[in-house]
Design brief:
single chain; 706 residues; alpha+beta; six-stranded antiparallel sheet; three-stranded antiparallel sheet; 13 strands
Length: 706
Amino acid sequence: MKRIGTEMPLTEDERQRLIDELNYWHNNSMSFHADRERAAAAFNCEWRNQHISGTMRDRGEKKAFPFQGASDQRLRWGKGVLKELSALLMNATALANVNITCSAGAHMQERANALSTLLEWAVSRMGVKWETQLRTALTYYLRDTPAVALLKVVWNRRTSISVVETDRESMMAEYTAWRMKDGTVSQVDAQGEWWMVMNHLATSQRGVAEAEEYMPAASTVMQFAIEAKGFEERKAQAVLKALATDPDGEVEYVVENVESEGPEIRAMRYGDDFCMPTLTEDFDYADWYEGEWLTKAELEERVASEGWSREWVKETLENPGTNFFDTLKPEYIDENKDLYNIVHCHHVTVDAQGRAWRWTSVLSLAEGSAYGKRLVRTRRGKWDAVMFRREINSSNIIDSVGIAEEAAPVQGIAKVIRDGAANNAIVGAQAPLKIKGRGIKNALIGPFKRISMNINDDVTFMQPPQFPAAADKQIDTIRSEFLAFEGVGDAQNDTSNMKQDIVSWWFAQMQELYRLLLEVTQDNASDETLAGITNSHDVKGLRREDIAGDFGIKVVLDQNDLNNDKLIKKLQTLGQLIQPLDKNNSLDTYPILADAVRKMLPGVAKESMKTRQEMQLDDVKDEMQNFIKIKAGIMPEINTDGKWNYQARLDFYRSLQENNPAAFEDLSEASRELLAKWIQALEQQAMQFGANAQIGRTGVAGVEAE
């Protein structure tokens, strides 16, 4: 691909500046690691010399140290909060409505429907990877400090290589069909052209390209090989020459198959996977650096797929297992001994006109870069990634504290209280004794202790130390306060408002991810891929013009819809209100019902819900059968429960009168009377379930109800 103005050389000064910036900001991000590790240790109940049983052991693991973890009570409140909030946000994401709107213009709603179908395809195509990466990002977003996560969107095109065998006769049949498709060439003429070219190639040293100069059929056969078979020019010449010269007229060749293409997301952790300037207020104007480990095959494949420098890749392959992302100490990592570390440097430059240009460069331990610097293909002046932050404590993006750091001191103090109480219980479990005697002074009483006693000595049992009930109560109070602070809540604390806020803030950021997914798909999806995207109802394959242009996107969900009981109660209340209030039948209940079914029965919602067009078509088809009955002199039965679309049935007769009046000419007098009564009945039902919905239903004489 020729790149005009979108790819520029990367000077050595620019490369060194990027490496210096990477060094500084990656080293700066490491300052969070010590705090993150300490918080994670408390979060996961880990400590030095920890045994799998939860006790502290000596080096030989022979015995536990008394009162130093031997009675340890593990606490996982933070992990419980993480799981609770992660489940809340994942469930909310699955149930939320993603509403897409398009600017005013022709076919506005059709474009919005097409984009909704495209987004649904993009998410479902990723399958479990969508959930895996989203859950990974949620873990970073909720647990880490800084509590941020980056989700990058990339277009992935997977191909495979296969071997195809063919022969002269088979290829001739394909050529003949191709030539005859427009009806201007006969089968005999097409076969004659084929054999003329084959005979010429078999007896001449020259190829197809040279024969095109004086043989029109050669140009046509060449055009077939390129257009119909998808060969490149050199490959087309080689295959045709081989077919002509092989004694058996057989040939095999390699073809590249596009197995799939579509967007994918990658969750990245601050410090481990990416770094950026610490004081960043607007991510889309910040330089940032992304580390990636690739296999040898992946590196070499990008020479063809991404246009990377072959020499640069070859030099990169000389340093397996070496971490370049941490350039201050590029140490060898044994676990990655078969992988190669590269860094994507995303940097912004501003020209003399004040325009921001967003570039990406790929560096490694090799000299130079993979391709210089390339302009990032995104819309709205944004990076191809979305930054998620849990809290807004200041304008700085990474000023956000995670659950692990918040849980650490709370779990720590509760653990101390619980350990003390448990240790006290251990003492209480011993046999506490009071000993009297001249020969006994300060005796240490322990399990299986042998006590030497004289005749007049005495031993009596004492009241053992009691497990302090106050400790349990204090632990419950600490836990309740912690859960309320995190928005999880319990029997003592209602945190529904906090949960609503947590979900709303997550949705605000998910909107950017959904928008980026659609924009990347708009820019990269091939016509073949679009044509294969359908849904079960009104979209039967997309076209380029269906998805073009700008759009708006909004993610919405009522928090109560996460609870089926509350959802049912809401629908019941709504049903009770609609009938007395909507006297003009102005409320369209279809979206309400469709949304409720999708949330309560997500597994069958698509298959069970018909579109308005499908329901109207069903009414029209049914009415056609009723018209046939009337023609035969039979009065149909009418539905008086409001289950029909009476207006659609009336429109059927009006349309029939306008477009095909002859349909009524062969009606007998009796059938005409039946039809008049039938239309009167439909009009009355349309009125009674419309404007007169609350007045009552009286029926029509001569027409029986179902």
